[in-house]
Specification:
Strand 4, helix 8 and strand 5 form a beta-alpha-beta unit. The mean pLDDT is 93. Helix content is 48%, strand content 11%. By secondary structure, the chain is α/β, with parallel strands linked by helices.
Length: 241
């Protein structure tokens, strides 16, 4: 018997899963910085990336009506401002603005391309399953989903900045199960991050499909007995469900 035959709800992660198809956003952004020949090292970028993520999570920099391109502009601006504050940036304000726009445009185009596949997967699975989204996000996830035309697929959305709980805290997954309206074992989580998504979702009784790709670390350590399935492309989920 198919191990997922009694599943009622699919709980999706968003960032790194539905938008980049198993690529951690740090890797996507670093690729964009290199593409535009931005003057910094990878170590400097990683420090700026961590600072930016914390800043956007703590302060209402991103507004509820910001689409993803606007979010990217703000994210990159915060990262570059941090580099300037640290004294590692030697470019003019005009150059900074040009870099911010080009980096955001590069990343947004990548997401738009990936969304072609995402929409097809969601459309096919929605004929059989209820969907819930669980995401660490900035307060504008509904706008982002609507922009890409996938908001209609999600019956419920659990966004960290709204509910006050962030991954890897298992409580955010418990909220996802609660919104699903069924038992944890009747939910399957599809996500790209082992430590923030797969392990905590497994710990509360959900089944899991790990979309394994380019993680934050080059070799992400993981207990491979935990995921119920491992895939390398979002479309492979269709073969399991």
């Amino acid at each position: 018997m198919n191990k997922f035959s009694d599943i009622k709800t699919v709980i999706f992660d968003y960032g790194g899963t539905l938008d980049t198809n198993a690529r951690h956003w740090a890797n996507v952004l670093w690729e964009a910085y290199r593409h535009v020949c931005f003057p910094m090292t990878e170590e400097q970028f990683r420090e700026a990336y961590v600072f930016g993520e914390r800043a956007l999570a703590k302060a209402p920099i991103v507004k509820p009506n910001d689409d993803f391109f606007q979010l990217l502009l703000k994210k990159v601006e915060v990262e570059i401002e941090w580099l300037e504050f640290k004294g590692t940036l030697k470019i003019s304000a005009l150059q900074q603005q040009a870099f911010i726009y080009d980096i955001a445009k590069y990343c947004n185009r990548l997401v738009e391309e990936n969304m072609e596949k995402t929409r097809k997967v969601l459309k096919e699975l929605s004929e059989k399953y209820k969907f819930v989204l669980v995401s660490n996000f900035y307060g504008n996830i509904h706008t982002v989903l609507k922009t890409y035309g996938i908001d209609k697929y999600f019956a419920e959305v659990v966004e960290s900045s709204v509910v006050g709980v962030r991954k890897p805290d298992p409580k955010i997954w418990e909220l996802g199960v609660e919104r699903a309206g069924c038992k944890a074992e009747e939910c399957v989580v599809v996500a790209d991050n082992f430590n923030k998504d797969i392990a905590p979702a497994h710990s509360i009784g959900c089944r899991t499909i790990w979309l394994k790709g380019e993680g934050w670390q080059k070799a992400e350590e993981a207990d491979m007995s935990i995921p119920d399935a491992v895939v390398g492309d979002l479309a492979e989920v269709l073969d399991l469900l």
